[in-house]
UniProtKB/TrEMBL annotation:
InterPro entries: NAD(P)-bd_dom_sf, Sc_DH/Rdtase_CS, SDR_fam
PROSITE patterns: ADH_SHORT
Family, as annotated: Belongs to the short-chain dehydrogenases/reductases (SDR) family.
Keyword flag Oxidoreductase: yes
UniProt keyword terms in alphabetical order: Oxidoreductase
Pfam families in the record: adh_short
GO molecular function: oxidoreductase activity
Keyword Oxidoreductase: yes
The name this protein goes by in its record: Putative 3-hydroxyacyl-CoA dehydrogenase
Taxonomy of the source species: Bacteria, Bacillati, Actinomycetota, Actinomycetes, Mycobacteriales
Length: 258
């Protein structure tokens, strides 16, 4: 699928994997809307890539629609990538046996709201806009890529909320792809492993910590870099025969309990 001259939207596009995806799609000739809550970083990525920044909290449907409408001003929307997400860790039951120390239910709901419901909201709205496109050579109108996590399969201690949200993204892949086949839109999911993003901080201590984490990767024994994920996102968008798939990009890691 050719995205040259078309528009694309990348949630969480201001940093990390999302920023890597923005750069990849822009290099393909797409006009990319960087949708993020971080205005400073988002504006910088948009300026670098010739795109547009739109402030988007993915729990706000109106903000998602505004970003999609902005993309449509730039060209037909043919690609959407859901990279926005959060993750907190908390055990399901506290150590003192008190109800009050059990997992914070509001925290659980927040992770689900951002990671899972936010992803689906972008999917349903972006696909709606794509359904209006003129069909391409394969009667294709667009492609969507969602970012899950290996935590969907190998969730660690304390990852109940995060793994639930990412498992939901994995679980929606096939049924939503089946739904979208009627309008010529493909949907795939990537499950990243340990990726070197700003979440790990900077400096000698951070580098030592990341090196230690990398020892658990099968091969190569290091953290992945955002462009390695972005490369797979790009392939899933432009390869017209990739559909309804969940792909781990993780160096072969299988996460231990903790």
């Amino acid at each position: 699928m050719d995205i040259n001259g078309a528009s694309a939207i990348v949630t969480g596009g201001a940093s990390g994997i999302g920023a890597g995806v923005v750069r990849r799609l822009a290099a393909r000739g797409a006009k990319v809307v960087v949708a993020d809550v971080n205005a400073d970083a988002g504006e910088a990525v948009a300026k670098e890539t010739g795109g547009v920044f739109v402030s988007v909290d993915v729990t706000d449907t109106d903000q998602i629609i505004a970003a999609i409408d902005k993309a449509l001003e730039l060209g037909p929307l043919k690609a959407a990538v859901n990279s926005a997400g959060v993750g907190w860790a908390q055990r399901t039951v506290g150590r003192d046996g008190e109800y009050s120390s059990a997992h914070d239910l509001d925290l659980y709901k927040k992770v689900i709201a951002i990671n899972l419901i936010g992803t689906f909201d972008v999917v349903r709205l972006a696909a709606t806009a794509m359904s209006r496109n003129e069909p391409g050579p394969d009667n294709d109108r667009g492609a969507i890529v969602n970012l899950a996590s290996v935590a969907a399969f190998d969730g660690q201690i304390g990852q109940a909320a995060y793994s639930s949200s990412k498992g939901g993204i994995v679980g929606m892949t096939l049924p939503v792809a089946r739904d979208l086949s009627a309008i010529g839109v493909r949907l795939n999911t990537i499950a990243p492993g340990l990726i070197d993003t700003p979440i790990y901080g900077t400096g000698p201590e951070s580098e030592a910590f990341k090196a230690k984490l990398g020892e658990s990767v099968l091969f190569p024994k290091r953290l992945g870099v955002p462009d390695e994920l972005a490369s797979m996102v790009e392939e899933l968008i432009v390869n017209s025969y990739m559909n309804a798939e969940v792909i781990r990009v993780d160096g072969g890691i299988r996460m231990p309990p903790k």
